[in-house]
Structure formats: structure tokens, C-alpha cells
Design goal:
Blueprint (H helix, E strand, L loop, with lengths): L4 E7 L14 E7 L5 H7 L18 E6 L6 H6 L2 H5 L2 E3 L9 E5 L61 E7 L3 E8 L5 E8 L9 H37 L7 E8 L1 H8 L19 E4 H4 L9 H8 L1 H4 L2 E4 L9 H9 L13 E6 L2 E7 L4 E7 L6 E2 L4 E2 H14 L17 E3 L4 H8 L5 H4 L2 H6 L5 E3 L1 H24 L7 E5 H6 L2 H7 L10 E5 L1 H15 L4 H9 L4 E3 L6 H9 L7
Parallel strand pairs: 1-5, 6-9, 9-11, 12-19, 14-21, 19-20
Antiparallel strand pairs: 1-2, 3-4, 3-5, 6-7, 7-8, 10-11, 12-13, 13-14, 15-16, 17-18
Length: 590
């Protein structure tokens, strides 16, 4: 067995455990097998958030500086760092394997703050096509009933009288990128408190495939623990909120979690090997119920006062936890919850009409229904719609900028940048005001995000829209656009009455910019509505209905997964997908 080496970690930034009393950098001594990567030991000791690329040396978020004992740089590190940085000891922790005792300094910056959307817009609220609230949307008639006007506010109207004045439900949107939780009154349907954070599993990669690979590589328990700790942090906050409202824990009636199939499997500690290879078979996608004590059994029971309260309080221990059912390995419980919230599920409050639900993020999920039958699918969109990174541009900025570049002739329909921008990209201002705008519920358009003066001079800017950004957007939008087309064709090419854009991307999207680059087909113009976080809304509504016994669980599972009323489409097996994908790579209205 190899002799372990000693690694001294210097932590001297404001974010990570600085020894403030001594007013000097904090030093931590670790030991490591010399054949393991540095990233593995830093993650094990929770000193590094991790990488977004799954440790492939692509994102650069695990950069460290060797102050002593630096290993020779790899070819990939020579590409990532300048010669001067390499001489100063800069390396990637996911690649570096120090063979002798060394001293390192952590360089990882704080996670870029991206607004996490928790708002849901009732179907009666009119959304202008450019993303401005309060204006009437053309042709907005299908599926909007009087009962939908107060979809969340008056959910108690269908109660079976089990609900009391002080009852609450915790709704959770367990996303690949973010986690959003709300404490919701079961009488008014309104959130009394909210908790959000980035999904800590991102330390093992930004996408579900990276998480699956990490789980299969021996990190299954760690991935489960990370997300349970995040849920516990939200629960702590809500218990404090109840205490301030002079309510006891007995007023909590349940927790309902909506996530994609992989996220729910990782939460429950399932073996996800079957999700990482064909035919991509989930362990379980039906309605699942457990208890809070069972869910948190993976945590250290002596870790905190809140946990001790859970282990000792019989009401909390037995608190029911529901996981929303999925449709397939790729279309999960988050989409099903959104469909339920939008009353699109056949046999479960469907309001009729031909409607689309489109939820865009790291994964793109889509579903179309005619009121009797539903087709659903998903496609990998990558980081193009999420954004962030060194450019500090979120996905909707990129769509708006691309549309503006096309209009100004800076970019052609093939995605080619004109000179002098081809090599270095177009200087743009990072839209940091998006964070405040997102929190306030407003949106921005292409004209607002592009600074013409800075674009021409290149002065006062800290980022550029490069050809790589545009290419990533082209590939993501081509996959989404092809998926929309295939669903529409297989439904019989009907007239679509309404398209619901779900999630943070859809909420802040300039829809006219989406038409301009071909992300959405022009035949849908005038029939697009942003509806916010439908997964979170559906988690509450489904959780409440399950607790009250108003839903037949077997019937719901059968509807979603049998393939009769709700059919999951595998785009990879559709012969037309490749041709449509290439067709929609161009940036143009179609």
C-alpha cells in the first residue's frame, strides 16, 4: 500500500473558515493516497464545493495554488492556465495528484448568485409576449376557467374537511441546479416562508449524468447526505418560522418533494446504475411515501439540536414525506407536478384544449396534451439555458443578446460572428441587475441587456459573448425546437391553444427574442404564457391532495407510467430527430 502524503490546506479568503480571531489564514492538515486526485480529498473534507464538469478538467472551478510541492502540470492544465500561473503553482484539483508533502491554497470563488424562482403565476394573470406583466396576451382563451383564477389561493375549496386553520404543507422543488422550499398554508394556499439554495450535489457535476457517474463510483451515500442536509436546513428555518407564529410542529401535515427521476433516486439512496445506461430503467417512478425520520436516517443523529428534535419528537419522526410520481427515466416528478398544477393531466382536473408545457434548464422537458392523451419528452440542453460562469450571463441574457446580434448584423443565421468580433467575441455588460430583477419578478428584453456603447468600444465590460457561447446556445435550442416539433407532429399537428413556459428561464425569457432565434415556432406567437415555478406549485397541490386522500395513488401512477394516457417519447429513437436538429441549428424565425 502506498504511503500517505501530508497536505496542508491554507484557507485565507472571506468565505471559507478563516480564523478571524487569530487574524491569519487557517491551516488544515490532511492526508491522502498519492494516487488519488486532490479533489477527492478536498471534497471528502468539505473544503471544496467541487466542479461543475464532474471532475473532467473542463470548468476550472476546482483551481488551487500549490505553495510548495507542486506536481508537474498536465496538458489540460497547460491549456487552462497561463505559463505565469503555472509557474506560480496553479493546478486543477480534479487532475493534480501530488506525490510528496505539499502546501496548497484554495482559490475557488463563491457560487455566482442566480435568482431562484419560487413564484407561480395563476393562469388568469395575463403576460405580455415581451415578458411584461399586466398586459393582455393575444388569443389567451384556451383552458382558462374561473376556478383557475385562484388555483393556489383557494385550493382549500376542494378539501375533505381534514384541514384546520393552522395546517401547513412543505413543498420542495428538488432541481438539478437549485433547491426551492416553501412553507405553505393549507387554508390560504399562500407561502408563509421560503428557503432556497444551490443543490450541493453540484460538487459532483452540474448535470444528472455526472451525478449518476459519481454515485456509481462510490459516492451514493455522500450524494444522498448532501441533499438531505439541504432539506434539513430548510426545515430548520420553517420550524423557527412556526415558533415565531406560535405554532407547534403538529401543524405540519407533510412534505411533498418534486424532482426529476435522478434527483429523487439520489435522495432516497437508490442504485442509479440503470439510469446511466440503456434502456434507462428507473427503480421506482410511482407515488412514494416515507417518513421524515426514514428520509433523514442517513444523517448523523447527534449533529444538531434540530435533528435531535426530529429524532425525539414523535410527530416530526412520523411526518409523511411524499415524492411526486414520474413519467419515465427522463421525464420526472417535477414535470408531473407542473402538469398537475397547470391542470393538464388527463383524468386529473384537465381543463381541455391543446396545450404545451415547456420547462427549460439544464434539461429540457416538454409535454403536449389534447385533453385526452398526452405526449412527453426530454432532451439535454446543457448549461446554455442556465448560464453563469466566467461570462456572468444567465441563459435568458444569451437568448436576448443573440437575437439583438442577428438584428444588428453582428451575427448571421449560421451563428458566425462578423469581424472584428469573430476571434474575441462581442464585449457586453454582465447583467448583474438580473438578480434584483428576478427577485422583484420583472424581466428584461434584448434592448435592455445590450449596451451599444460598450459593444463598440469594448470599454467598461468584464465579459464577452463568444462564438463558443453562441454555439452552445445553437445546440441547445436545436434540440428543444426539434423536440417541440416531434411532439406536435405526433399529436397530429393540431392548433395549439396555449404554451406554458415553466421555470426561471421561461419566466424571464424575452419571448420575441425566442421567436427571432427559432427557439419557439412562429405559429405559437400570441399563445405563450410564463407560469413560473410550476414544480413547486404542483408539489404543494399534489402533497395536499395525497394527505387529504383525494387522489387515488395507483390511478395516478398508472396514468403517468402505463403509456396509455401519457406516453413518453424517446427522441433518440425518432428517425426525424437528427434531421430536425440540423435544420433548427440556424438562428432564424421558422
Amino acid at each position: 500500500m502506498s504511503e500517505e502524503i501530508k497536505i496542508t490546506v491554507v484557507i485565507d479568503d472571506e468565505i471559507q473558515n478563516t480564523d478571524k480571531e487569530a487574524k491569519k489564514p487557517k491551516r488544515i492538515l490532511l492526508t491522502q493516497d498519492p494516487f488519488m486526485t486532490l479533489l477527492s480529498v478536498l471534497q471528502k473534507n468539505r473544503l471544496l464545493v467541487g466542479s461543475l464538469c464532474g471532475g473532467r478538467g473542463e470548468c476550472g472551478r476546482c483551481a488551487v495554488q500549490f505553495l510548495d510541492g507542486a506536481p508537474m502540470p498536465s496538458a489540460l492544465e497547460r491549456k487552462h492556465f497561463s505559463p505565469e500561473e503555472l509557474r506560480r503553482g496553479y493546478r486543477l484539483a480534479c487532475i493534480a495528484r501530488p506525490r510528496t508533502d505539499c502546501v496548497i491554497r484554495l482559490l475557488q470563488n463563491a457560487e455566482p448568485k442566480v435568482p431562484i424562482l419560487t413564484k407561480t403565476i395563476p393562469l388568469s394573470e395575463n403576460i405580455d409576449l415581451t415578458g411584461q406583466e399586466g398586459k393582455k396576451t393575444q388569443n389567451q382563451t384556451a383552458g382558462v376557467t374561473e376556478s383557475e383564477r385562484n388555483l393556489l389561493r383557494n385550493a382549500s375549496a376542494v378539501s375533505n374537511n381534514k384541514t384546520h386553520v393552522t395546517d401547513y404543507m412543505i413543498a420542495v422543488d428538488l432541481g438539478t441546479t437549485t433547491i426551492a422550499m416553501q412553507l405553505v398554508s393549507m387554508v390560504s394556499g399562500e407561502a408563509v416562508d421560503t428557503y432556497c439554495e444551490h443543490n450541493p450535489q453540484r460538487s459532483y457535476g452540474a448535470d444528472v449524468l455526472s451525478r449518476v457517474q459519481a454515485s456509481c463510483a462510490g459516492h451514493r451515500e455522500e450524494l444522498q447526505r448532501l441533499v438531505c442536509e439541504a432539506l434539513l436546513r430548510g426545515l430548520r428555518r420553517f420550524l423557527s418560522c412556526l415558533a415565531m407564529r406560535c405554532e407547534d410542529v403538529g401543524t405540519l401535515r407533510g412534505i411533498c418533494i418534486a424532482g426529476n427521476t435522478t434527483m429523487e433516486h439520489l435522495l432516497l439512496g437508490y442504485d442509479v446504475q440503470s439510469l446511466g445506461r440503456s434502456p434507462f430503467t428507473p427503480v421506482e417512478i410511482g407515488v412514494q411515501e416515507t417518513t421524515l425520520a426514514s428520509l433523514f436516517a442517513c444523517l448523523n443523529q447527534n449533529a444538531s439540536e434540530t435533528e435531535r428534535q426530529i429524532w425525539e419528537d414523535e410527530v416530526l419522526r412520523c411526518l409523511p414525506v411524499y415524492l411526486t410520481p414520474g413519467i419515465s427515466a427522463f421525464v420526472g416528478g417535477d414535470v408531473a407536478a407542473g402538469l398537475y398544477a397547470m391542470r393538464m393531466l388527463p383524468g386529473f382536473g384537465d381543463t381541455g384544449g391543446v396545450r404545451f408545457l415547456v420547462d427549460l434548464g439544464t434539461n429540457g422537458e416538454m409535454a403536449i396534451t389534447d385533453g385526452k392523451h398526452m405526449l412527453a419528452t426530454a432532451t439535454a440542453a446543457g448549461p446554455a439555458f442556465e448560464g453563469g460562469g466566467e461570462n456572468a450571463l444567465i441563459g435568458t441574457d444569451r437568448v436576448a443578446l443573440t437575437a439583438s446580434f442577428l438584428k444588428r448584423g453582428i451575427l448571421d443565421e449560421t451563428g458566425l460572428l462578423a469581424e472584428p468580433y469573430f476571434s474575441e467575441g462581442v464585449p457586453v455588460e454582465p447583467i448583474r441587475s438580473h438578480i434584483a430583477a428576478g427577485a422583484a419578478g420583472s424581466r428584461m428584453t434584448a434592448g435592455q441587456v445590450l449596451s451599444g456603447a460598450n459593444m463598440e468600444s469594448g470599454q467598461g465590460t468584464s465579459c464577452r459573448m463568444k462564438k463558443e457561447d453562441i454555439r452552445a446556445l445553437q445546440m441547445a435550442k436545436a434540440a428543444i425546437r426539434a423536440g417541440i416539433e416531434i411532439l406536435w407532429q405526433e399529436m397530429g399537428r393540431p392548433r395549439v391553444d396555449m404554451v406554458y413556459l415553466a421555470g426561471g428561464f421561461g419566466y424571464q425569457l424575452d419571448v420575441e427574442a425566442a421567436f427571432a432565434i427559432g427557439l419557439l415556432p412562429v405559429r405559437l406567437r400570441g399563445r405563450v404564457q410564463a407560469v413560473g415555478n410550476t414544480s413547486l406549485a404542483g408539489a404543494y397541490l399534489l402533497g395536499r391532495a395525497l394527505w387529504e386522500g383525494r387522489i387515488d395513488r395507483r390511478a395516478l401512477t398508472e396514468t403517468l407510467s402505463s403509456g396509455r394516457m401519457v406516453e413518453s417519447i424517446n427522441l433518440a429513437k425518432r428517425k426525424s430527430f437528427a434531421a430536425l436538429y440540423l435544420q433548427y441549428m440556424n438562428l432564424e424565425e421558422n
